[in-house]
């Protein structure tokens, strides 16, 4: 079965290497890959040793160094903007950072942060109202998942002051007022090409103007870092110019195992118990009857043609896969990227066996939140908080790389032995 140790499906190979399933099939036709079982084009199974021919061993099988876990040489203080329900803060806490300020606009998300970590300094409200100057010299790392917003160019290159009115400006203002040694931003993959790439280039230019040396931004795939979900995040890392030469930052290596929905919801390597019961959305009776016809791993094209036409309406005739519609997850694959609602027609996330959306606790498991992490608010608010979060395990792995870089910076300050 896909998901078993040392076996990979067509979809898993494609997801891991960021290629289409058709590319994987071409490798098979050329003899580069030989399936161990071949029921049909989408259900072929490849063994671990077969994949070594792809020259991507570090991706599939991990790196021995990925198990190393540096201990902070001293407490490293973290400030986070746009903190949400705490996915990033919790992941970085596990890596060894201490939060000294978290800002978040959503009141329920702030309540979630306070309920789980009463000692955290959570400042609610708009970031524009926060004065960061008292934290000058007290902040080692500043992080944040600022929203992707376009800038008004008027045919000129933009600097820090020119970005006023955007949330990125507030993120940059926090950097300017606190002067942390390291900054980390996370965003959607689409930022790479947003407004023809000018949005990202403006952000990097602003960081340079503020005295920082940004690394080449990188997209991290959550499935490479012990997350049972096909989620991707663009990560920006930069170091203050006076310490950049010492950091020698290394991106986290792939963990070497792909986790699935089964790993998320059942006792195993990710969690030491089955997922606890919780509330969740329900389908209307009409939608439930449709979803009952969808097999595990299937979507609207697996429905009888008459049901497809009725369910999809005009979309039935449009080009494009629309593979998120009427989608049932598979036990043996990572989950598709979670959205803020698992029952919406465009982005259904149906349980592999039961004809219902994932519950809130199942949602949290797929984002690798621990079962004791409480979410405050209405059911729709909880779904939104979890769906908008950054996977905890992904950020923990990133945080380990961040601690290693901070240790190198710290060690460079120590007096040399005579």
Topology:
Layout: E1 7-9, H1 10-17, H2 21-29, E2 37-38, E3 44-47, H3 48-51, H4 57-61, E4 76-81, H5 87-95, E5 97-104, H6 107-116, E6 122-124, E7 141-144, H7 167-178, E8 182-187, H8 198-209, E9 212-214, E10 218-221, E11 229-230, E12 232-240, H9 244-247, H10 261-265, H11 285-291, H12 305-312, E13 335-336, H13 360-366, H14 379-388, H15 392-413
Helix pairs in contact: 1-2, 5-15
Protein architecture, described:
The structure is a single chain. By secondary structure, the protein is an alpha/beta fold. The chain folds into three domains: 7-61, Multidrug-efflux Transporter Regulator, Chain: A, Domain 2; 66-258 and 392-413, Rossmann fold, CATH 3.40.50.150; 281-358, no CATH class. 32% of the residues lie in helices and 13% in strands. Strands 4, 5, 6, 7, 8, 9, 10 and 12 form an eight-stranded mixed β-sheet that branches. A three-stranded antiparallel β-sheet has the order 1-3-2. A two-stranded parallel ribbon has the order 11-13. Helix 5 (87-95) links the parallel strand 4 and strand 5 (97-104). Helix 1 crosses helix 2 and helix 5 crosses helix 15 (392-413). It starts with 6 loop residues before the first strand and ends in a 5-residue tail after the last helix. The mean pLDDT is 89.
